[in-house]
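agent> Task received from the user: take the single chain below, predict its 3D structure, and emit C-alpha cells. No templates, no multimer pairing.
agent> Plan: (1) validate residues, (2) run structure prediction, (3) serialize to C-alpha cells, (4) report one or two observations.
agent> Step 1 OK, no nonstandard residues flagged.
tool_call: predict_structure(input=
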Amino acid sequence: MLKRQTEGSVICTSCGVLVGVNDDTCYNCGRRNPGLWGYGPALRRLGHDLGFVPVVMGGTITLYALSLLLSGTNIQGFLSPSTEILFLLGASGAVPVFTFDRWWTVLTAGWLHAGVLHIFFNVMWIRQLAPAVADLYGAGRMIIIYTASGVAGFTASSVAGLYLAGIPLIGGALFSVGASAPIFGLLGALVHYGRRTGHSHAGQAGLQYALFLGLFGLIFPGVDNWAHAGGFAGGYLASLVLDPLKKERIDHLALALGCLVLTLVALIASFVTALPVLMQ
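)
tool_result: status=success, residues=280
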C-alpha cells in the first residue's frame, strides 16, 4: 500500500507542483523533501487527511463495540457501556486522573463513548470537520490539533472535576469520555483560520457551530462543558502556533505520527494498568 517511488516526478505535498522524487527542496515553495522520500504518491492516495478520518472513525466504533461486549449484562440505557469498563479502556476525568494517577487518559478518552447517540453524532462531526481542517492546515497539522485539543479538553475537565465537583454546569467531570473535546478543537482551528487569513466564512462557520454545540451543552444535563471549552481553547492555541499561512513541514507529519503512536500506547497502558484494579 505504501510502495516507495524511487524515480520520476511527484507532486509536492505542499504546493502541488511537479518536482523530482529525489529533489531536496521544492523549487516553487521551498519545502524540504517535497516527495517525502518517495512515499508522497502513496500518502496522497490516502486522501487529504492521510487516512486519519477512517482511522479515528474505525477506532472509536471498534472501541465502543468492545466496551459494550466487555460490559455484558451491565449495559445501561441507550446502549451505554458500564463505567468500570470505560475506566478500564481509558476514560478520563477527576477520578481516573487524580485518584488513580491515570494522567495519560487525557489522550485516550476522546476515543471512547458513553452511548449509541453519543458516538453517532461525534463520528458525524469528525467526518465533516476533520477533512475541512486538513484542507486548510494540512493533514499532519490537523492530527496535531485534534490530539492537542483532546488533551487540553480532558485536562480542563479533570481539574474542574477535582475542584468544582457537584456545581451544576461548571462542575467538571469525575469521569469523562467522547470525541467532543477534539471536535471543539477543530472548530477552534477554523475560527483562528478565519481570523488569521481573513476568510470570514470559515471562521464564522466554526464559531457558529461552537456556539450552537456549547448552548446544547448548557441546556442538556450530563454534558462535559469543560471538555468542550478546553478543547476549543486547545485547538485555537495549537492552530495559532502552527500558523495556517505557513506551509506544512516534514516535522509536522513526524509529530502527527508521534501523536498517533502515543495515543495507541496510552490505550494499551489504560487496559494493562486498570485490569488488576478491576479484578480485585
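agent> Step 4: summary for the user.
Strands lie at 9-11, 18-20.
agent> Done.
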